[in-house]
């Protein structure tokens, strides 16, 4: 029990520092969706769903799991889905991937990752006060909007308000620190920074 608790605390501390960076850099389903985005609906707008849906979905999964003792979380976990596809081959998991693709097709790119994914919800909760975040240099920023219009999957909800309100850092837990906004900024006003939370 002690070793399990210690491991759990290490994981929590890690994601408290980096936030949802797993989603932007590691998640296998996110990588797959990036590829399908380019071919299936590259001209579709980014997600239009309420980003708070993922928290309700997470609560629903936990309640069902508690009542039935069925590990629902493992069924819908993107990591678990791809692991089962690799180990057992094409099966029920393939239908879940198709369902996720359809969700993005109907509600816009990034809808699953930022508005529904239960793992994303957990990382968002843990990373509310993350230390690794996007820094905005307003002395350079021209407010052209290329960062949130051309690259950020949640730009209208997260990045755009931060720029308009002249926030020094992008502290929203929905940001995955993927770095796309940095690449699209023509004046190099964005960067990733490590900074202790300010009062």
Could you walk me through the main structural features you see in this protein, from its secondary elements to its overall organization?
With 199 residues, this protein is mainly alpha-helical. The chain is built from twelve helices and three strands, in the order αααααααααβααβαβ. It has a three-stranded antiparallel beta sheet with strand order 2-1-3. Helix 4 crosses helix 9 and helix 6 packs across helix 7. The longest helix is centred in the first third of the chain and has 17 residues, at 2-18. It is globular and about 55 Å long. The model has no long low-confidence stretch (mean pLDDT 82).
Question: How is the main sheet built?
Answer: 3 strands, antiparallel
The percent of residues in helical segments reads 55-70%
Total count of strands? 3
Spans with pLDDT under 50 lasting ≥5 residues?
none
- Secondary-structure-based class equals mainly alpha
Distance between the termini: 36 Å
Give average pLDDT, whole number.
82
Summarize the helices and strands and which ones pair or pack.
Layout: H1 2-18, H2 21-25, H3 28-40, H4 53-68, H5 72-76, H6 78-88, H7 92-107, H8 111-116, H9 118-126, E1 132-136, H10 146-150, H11 159-164, E2 169-170, H12 180-184, E3 190-194
Antiparallel strand pairs: 1-2, 1-3
Attribute tags:
mainly alpha, 12 helices, three-stranded antiparallel sheet, 199 residues
Task: Describe the structure concisely for a colleague.
The chain has 199 residues and is mostly helical. The chain contains twelve helices and three strands. The protein has helices at residues 2-18, 21-25, 28-40, 53-68, 72-76, 78-88, 92-107, 111-116, 118-126, 146-150, 159-164, 180-184, and strands spanning 132-136, 169-170, 190-194.
């Amino acid at each position: 029990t002690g070793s399990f608790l210690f491991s759990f605390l290490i994981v929590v501390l890690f994601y408290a520092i980096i936030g949802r960076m797993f989603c932007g850099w590691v998640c296998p389903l996110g990588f797959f969706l990036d590829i399908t985005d380019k071919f299936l609906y590259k001209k579709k707008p980014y997600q239009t769903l309420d980003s708070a849906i993922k928290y309700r979905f997470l609560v629903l999964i936990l309640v069902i799991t508690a009542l039935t003792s069925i590990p629902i979380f493992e069924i819908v976990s993107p990591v678990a889905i791809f692991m089962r596809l690799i180990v057992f081959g094409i099966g029920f998991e393939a239908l879940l991937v198709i369902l996720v693709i359809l969700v993005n097709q109907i509600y816009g790119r990034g809808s699953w990752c930022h508005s529904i994914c239960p793992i994303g919800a957990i990382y968002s909760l843990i990373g509310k006060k993350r230390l690794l975040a996007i820094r905005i240099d307003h002395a350079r920023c021209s407010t052209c909007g290329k960062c949130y219009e051309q690259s950020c999957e949640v730009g209208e909800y997260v990045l755009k308000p931060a720029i308009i309100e002249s926030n020094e850092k992008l502290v929203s837990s929905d940001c995955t620190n993927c770095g796309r906004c940095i690449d699209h900024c023509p004046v190099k006003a964005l960067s990733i920074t490590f900074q202790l939370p300010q009062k």
